[in-house]
Amino acid sequence: MKRLLTVAEMTLRELARRRGVIALLLLLPLAFYLIRRDQYIGQSIRSLFIGIGWAVSTAALFSTIGARSIEPRLRLAGYRAHDLYLGRLVGLWTLGVLLAAPFLLLVSLDTTGLRYGAISLAMLCCVVIAAPLGMLVGYLLPREMEGTLLLLTAVALQMIIDPATTIAKVTPFWSSREIGTYAVDNMGTDYLVRGSVHGIAATLVMLALVAVVSSARLRRRPHLRQV
Amino acid sequence: MNAEPWLALLAGELRRQGLADPQVATVVADVRAHLRDSAEDPYRAFGAPERYAAAVAESLRGPASHARPVGPVRLQADGITKRYGRRQVLRDVNLTVRAGQIAAVVGANGCGKSTLLNICAGLISPDAGTVTVHGTLSHSPQDGGTAPYLLPDEHFALVGAGKGLTRDRSRTAGRARAGELGWQDVGATLAGQLSGGTRQKLNLVMSTLTEPDVLLLDEPYQGFDRGAYVNLWQQLWRLRDDGKAIVVVTHMLNELDQVDIVLDLTEANS
């Protein structure tokens, strides 16, 4: 546990020092929220969720790519693969909650009559899913530019796709859209349940993929015998 | 002429070479007497102080340093073969390093030195061959290996936690190792803002912090000034005397007489 928490702390410290990046990451969800604010608040809030998802996944991408060269030596220094990816995840989840909190405050001050508990849950889904999503992209694509473009594509797809289609249900942030509809449009609890189930499933799938890819990258090669 | 500035430089270099203070005092007194009697320019009589100090230290160390007892096998690489596409990089390479030995891996650019070290560290797989390591292993890569937005002390804490060291103990050990490399001001500079040589020292400290049995160093002196380079080799010799097995990729052929094994990959692959 000490190893895991140390990695989480160092992940947070590293990201906290990239203040310019953090400020720019906050800009996108804010722009998403404000750009349609004068029209329909539901769309504005659902865009905000996507923006938070993008910000956290991009932070996760940068963090993961930045750690590519240090993780193998930490593995040799006694860390297990799960110490490294779970520690990074804990750090990123903490950062994500800190990033999302001001937006929750903004929405609660800027609107009335919404289900704010559900809005919090939708934001939490975005944060929880976005961190392993960004890590996964960071493991698979070695450069920040490619990874950022891929995440932008995923976000754009999420925004333009019809949420009622089957393919929309396999996009990572569909849960936040469903919970958002429940929160803003005063719909039945089936939206909330559907969204929550999707959020849990998406998180578990992302965690499993991160575990598999990270463990494969940091695996002990069969030619090396340590006695 | 005033030879004192030259003598002060000589004293510093002799200490850097690992001579004890009484030995330094004796050498400096002899040289001072010679210069006073001959009235010669010290640079004309003895040359640059660092070169003269190196020669004196070498003569004082004597041949005994080459005949030391060695321990059990720590690293054994057998039949390592590696291809990248059509290019054969390593062909049936063998290397055995015992406790208390330094092995230098040398060869032309692109002959597979780093590839061999990465295979020994288990970072990449060979097409054929095995590596057996008896004990713990540490690797200092040629590039990267540090986190640009963390402080040196945070690197020490991160590496130390892997072996269950407390944060204070990691920092104390890290700073002590840094001091041995002539890096005293381990302060509030992020790793990404350190000079190339200092970042390489950080890399090296991270590798030695957990007292591994086998140390793999890929050109650890990049960006070092001369003093740091001397300090590095002294630290490697100390680690060797402590029973560590060390493999170092190097271009600096002038130090090869100070190592126990030389593996020339240009020859091995030909």
TrEMBL record, chain A:
Keywords: Membrane, Transmembrane, Transmembrane helix. The keyword Membrane applies. The chain crosses the membrane at residues 47-65, 85-107, 119-141, 148-168, 197-216. This is ABC transporter permease. It comes from Luedemannella flava.
TrEMBL record, chain B:
InterPro entries: AAA+_ATPase, ABC_transporter-like_ATP-bd, P-loop_NTPase. Gene3D superfamilies: P-loop containing nucleotide triphosphate hydrolases (3.40.50.300). Residues 75-270 form the ABC transporter domain. The keyword Plastid does not apply. Signal peptide: none annotated. Keywords: ATP-binding, Nucleotide-binding. It comes from the Bacteria. It holds the Pfam family ABC_tran. CDD domains: ABC_DR_subfamily_A (cd03230). This is ABC transporter domain-containing protein. It comes from Luedemannella flava. The lineage of its organism: Bacteria, Bacillati, Actinomycetota, Actinomycetes, Micromonosporales.
